[in-house]
Amino acid sequence: MGRYVARRLLQMIPVFIGTTLLIFLMVYALPGDPVRGLFGDKATTPSVIRALRHEYGLDKPVLVQYWDFMKGIVLHFDFGKQIASGRPVTEILGEAFPVTLRLASLAFVIEAVIGIVLGVVAGLRAGKAADTVILFFTLLLISVPVFVLGYILQTVFAINLGWLEPSVTDPTDFNQLLLPAIVLASASLAYVARLSRTSVAENLRADYMRTAIAKGLPRRRVVGVHLLRNSLIPVVTFLGTDLGALMGGAIVTEGIFNIHGVGGTIADSITRREGTTLVGLVTILVLVYLVCSLIVDLLYAVLDPRIRYA
Amino acid sequence: MRAPARVAWAAGAVAAVLPLAACGSGAGVPGGSVLSSSWGDPQNPLEPANTNEVQGGKVLDMIFRGLKRYDPRTGKAENMLAEKIETTDARTYTITVKPGWRFSNGEPVTARSFVDAWNYGASLKNHQKNAYFFGYIEGYDKVHPAEGRQTADTLSGLTVTGPRTFTVRLSQPFSSFPDTLGYVAFAPLPRMFFTDHKAWLDKPVGNGPYRIESYTKGAQMYLRKWDAYPGPDKARNDGVTLLVYTDSTTAYTDVLAGNLDLADDIPATQLKNVRKDLDGRYINSPAGILQTLAFPFWDKAWNTEGARKVRIGLSMAIDRETITRTLFRGTRTPATDWTSPVLGKAGGYQPGLCGRACTYRPAEAKRLIQEGGGLPGGQVRITYNADSGSHKEWVDAVCNSINNALGDDHACVGSPVGTFADFRNRIAQHRVTGPFRAGWQMDYPLIQNFLQPLYYTDASSNDGTWSNATFDRLVDQANATRDRATAIRLFQQAERVVRDEMAAIPLWYQNGSAGYSDRLHDVALNPFSVPVYDEIRVG
User: Fold this and answer.
1) pLDDT digits (tens, 9 = 90+) for B484-516
2) Across the A/B interface, how many CB contacts are shorter than 8 Å?
3) List of residues 6+ apart from A208 with CB closer than 8 A
4) What is the pTM of this model?
5) Are residues A41 and A111 in the same domain?
6) CB contact under 8 A, A47 and B145
7) A30 with B217: Cβ contact below 8 A
8) CATH number at residue A161
9) Residue B173, CA distances (Å) to B115, B178, B179, B467 in order
10) Region B379-388 average pLDDT
């Protein structure tokens, strides 16, 4: 187990270098000049543009820029400076990530708990009314775009009913984050429910289930331990990769509820063509994905005793 | 069973990640007669000479007062810190600063506070974005050369002659120079700005009616009324909380829900409901912004006598009236000159100066374009950036209008560019082949600011590289004239040259818009479309 983890951790290094280089090159290939974009519709003197380009190292060849950037990260944990504000990227990461982590973990809990409960209920009653209702409900969640759902929930629950806050003014307040977390979780929740439904419905007919029931185990134990643990493998796979998506892909939700998180910062950096900020943000997301997939793989062994990592 | 142990191990790994989610600081909303207002994250560090957009300008307008201030209603430049500004030749100015002014940290505002600030702003090594505003001052070419290294650190045209007096020598006569001094780049700076720059950037210190109490970058800023403010325009509320919104629709929703007091950019999609939604608490007032279509004069095809007729014809083919009414719902007004109504007639705004060329005359448009040899390349492509604003909508409407007038479905098409950074880049590198979107937001309410930076040969924002000797001569003459009325007349003559050549097609004057909650009174927007915060009463 220990050796397996060590090997996986070592594998992260080339993945890390590869992804950062790819993103760096892709941003470089985008048309436009981040420095010129700073001046709005106004022009400025070419000497200021030259001086700024020099300060941010944009006048060097791209591979040299990448080398300097990686050297900064590895040696001094220095992610460079944001071109728009002149602030260190680490500062911007330090502001955006806690907010996003809070939102993503709340959404993750909602998605996992409600999704699995709905899935198990539907799976155990496959083909009956409850199953149909849940299938219809999840179909609805999948087919309604996030921004439609966001604005509808915001109007109904925050403005008409006044139960929840329409936007997030204090990102440490989980009450304010509840509505955006529900919106963010909605689509994934539907997938989790459908995945667990199929898996539960299938495993109900498995041999070990018949054995467990024949042993005379209480139904609670049969469903809670034997059925659920074995049915969760596809769900856990989905949840593991989805955590990264929840963190980086919340651009629309963040905009609707005015959350200053990672998604919006990434979108801004792309339109402003700011390579260093973007790579800094994405690097951390890559690490999150890598760690999540490692945890998922380790959880397989927990869930299914047949899986062993030597 | 062995399983629970392994479950615990995995749970531990998950638990190690979660505490991260619990850190971060909360900021409570302060009490008293404090209002909250929507804000955008400033694009630059909040240095006066480095702030060239509205959001940063909003804060600087609250914490700084310069030698002059533009009246929030009339836009007229009036003395603020300046006791007197004297000149005999429109080239050398002697400026006396009023006594008794202080920065909010107690330091007195002296002549040196200005001279040091201006030297800092002009110096190439500080690469301040507004450096070119100091370009009129003698010695600018030494501290900010177009090529190579700077050979001086300070402007030779600036001399401190006493604790409260200094002289400014310009490189050429410029009679409206005193009226430009209300621009934020000319604000005074305390010593702390130079000695402890980082601390200053974290919490800027100025001499205006508000002090910055706390600043969480990227999220919010709380400005409190400065009780010891010595100026005449003391704040009438206890403070302002600026909250960063990434989406103006959310800010608007928050005003409706009572979560926010003032949103100063009403999203286009809400314009049809705004009057009903806010029950009259909606402002739509002219701002010093003119939208135009500029032309690529570096391209020979657009720079001939025939092309001049084509440009005028295109202008006549645009139905400004219908587009502003239906698309912008009255938040923009058809342009009939190249300035802005906020200047007032005394300031040089002359409605109708454009005349026939800016009225919708489809038949004449078609005739003129035919006379001029037809559209260069057989088609006009209007280039715009697609990442912000509602540019696509109006470009399509303009093209529709042109196509209808010319009776040709392919006469005009929009040519979107993905990002603003790329749009600017293409213009700078002359890679645009047809008319392109150009917007001008005035720096100071002077007719000079609407003409010289945009149409003078090689001027800083002359993106189309238009050049005309008569225009340049008239502008030079106007700048050298000390009589204000004569100068304005000369600028208007120059503007007629722009009209006759149709150097750029004026489209519409843009308004500023804002909506506010019923807690607020006396809400107004100044000619820069920024709320006049110090006048707002709460409760």
Assistant:
1) 899 999 999 999 999 999 999 999 999 999 999
2) 187
3) A226, A230
4) 0.83
5) no
6) yes
7) no
8) 1.10.3720.10
9) 20, 12, 14, 21
10) 89
State whether A97 and A233 are in the same domain.
yes
Beta strand B412-417 with B436-441 is unpaired
B52: pLDDT confidence band, cut at 50, 70 and 90?
confident
Q: Give me the residues paired with residue B508 across strands.
A: B291, B334
Mean pLDDT of B152-168: 95
pLDDT tens column, A17-37: 888 888 888 888 877 777 877
High-pLDDT (> 70) share of chain A, %: 99
CB contacts of A105 in chain B (<8 Å) are 18, 21
Rounded to an integer, what distance in angstroms lies between the CA atom of residue B310 and that of residue B370? Answer: 8
Q: How many structural domains is chain A composed of?
A: 2
Q: Which of A30, A84, A302 sits opposite B10 (nearest CB)?
A: A302
Q: Using a CB-CB distance cutoff of 8 angstroms, which residues of chain B are in contact with residue A95?
A: 216-219
Nearest CA in chain A to B128: A48
> Cα(B406)–Cα(A191) distance, rounded to whole angstroms?
54
Residues A111 and A211 in one domain: yes
Q: Which of B19-23, B280-284, B357-361, B438-442 has the lowest mean pLDDT?
A: B19-23
| End-to-end C-alpha distance for chain A, whole angstroms | 6
- Among candidates A32, A87, A299 on the partner chain, residue whose Cβ is nearest the Cβ of B419: A32
Residues A46 and A104 placed together within one structural domain of the fold? no
3-state SS, residue B8 = helix
Q: Strands B239-244 and B34-39, how do they pair?
A: parallel
CB contact under 8 A, A98 and B41: no
Q: Which among A55, A92, A159 is the nearest to B256, CB-wise?
A: A159
Q: Which of residues 238-297 of A touch B (CB under 8 A)?
A: 254-258, 260, 264, 271-273, 291, 295
CB contact under 8 A, B257 and A158: yes
The range of the structural domain enclosing residue A40 comes to 2-81
> Side chain identity at B264, as an amino acid letter?
D
A85 and B249 within 8 Å at the Cβ level: the answer is no
The answer to whether A166 contacts B250, with C-beta atoms less than 8 Å apart, is: yes
**Cα(B370)–Cα(B362) distance, integer angstroms:** 12
CB contact under 8 A, A41 and B460: no
For residue B513, the SS3 value is strand
- B222: which chain A residues are within 8 Å (Cβ-Cβ)? none
